[in-house]
């Protein structure tokens, strides 16, 4: 039995050693990102894009339950464990004075649905869901259509 296993293993090893490397035509092209940059290359910096100015109106949503888009720049907003710049205008205590939309009451519920006296930790980092609108071109062609009821 040992002899059969030894011969099988030896045959497999010889077979592996005799495999020829692929021809140049068989080598795939280098992998590139959607922005046509080599994946193994240096990371490219994000391009400049124009953000919509705050016009005092809310931006339209494209699907049900979409978090509202932010109609102003947020690139210099500080959001840490101890400070959230968004709450300076959108917190309930300041929204009327700044004429900004208030944070939704859903942001004051924890994962179990219990009401909290302050913003839930899972909703505290606003920019996880709310993003500024830009005129960035799609990376891939698509036929996306807004939900008919939101038109």
TrEMBL record:
A Gene Ontology cellular-component term: periplasmic space
Gene3D superfamilies, sorted: Flavocytochrome C3, Chain A
Location of the protein in the cell: Periplasm
Gene source species: Bordetella genomosp. 7
Pfam families from the UniProt entry: NapB (PF03892)
Gene Ontology MF terms in the entry: metal ion binding
Keyword Iron: yes
Swiss-Prot/TrEMBL GO biological process terms: anaerobic respiration
PANTHER family found in the cross-reference section: PERIPLASMIC NITRATE REDUCTASE, ELECTRON TRANSFER SUBUNIT
Family: Belongs to the NapB family.
Swiss-Prot/TrEMBL keywords: Electron transport, Heme, Iron, Metal-binding, Periplasm, Signal, Transport
Name of the protein this chain belongs to: Periplasmic nitrate reductase, electron transfer subunit
Keyword flag Transport: yes
């Amino acid at each position: 039995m040992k002899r059969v296993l030894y011969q099988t293993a030896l045959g497999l090893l010889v077979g592996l050693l005799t495999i020829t490397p692929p021809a140049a035509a068989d080598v795939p092209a280098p992998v590139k990102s959607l922005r046509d940059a080599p994946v193994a290359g240096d990371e490219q910096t994000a391009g400049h894009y124009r953000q919509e100015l705050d016009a005092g109106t809310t931006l339209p949503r494209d699907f049900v339950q979409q978090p509202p888009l932010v109609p102003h720049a947020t690139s210099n907003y500080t959001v840490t464990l101890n400070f959230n710049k968004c709450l300076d205008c959108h917190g309930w205590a300041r929204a009327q004075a700044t004429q900004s939309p208030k944070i939704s009451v859903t942001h004051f519920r924890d994962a179990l649905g219990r009401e909290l006296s302050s913003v839930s930790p899972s909703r505290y980092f606003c920019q996880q869901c709310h993003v500024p609108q830009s005129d960035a071109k799609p990376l891939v062609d698509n036929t996306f259509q807004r939900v008919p009821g939101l038109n």
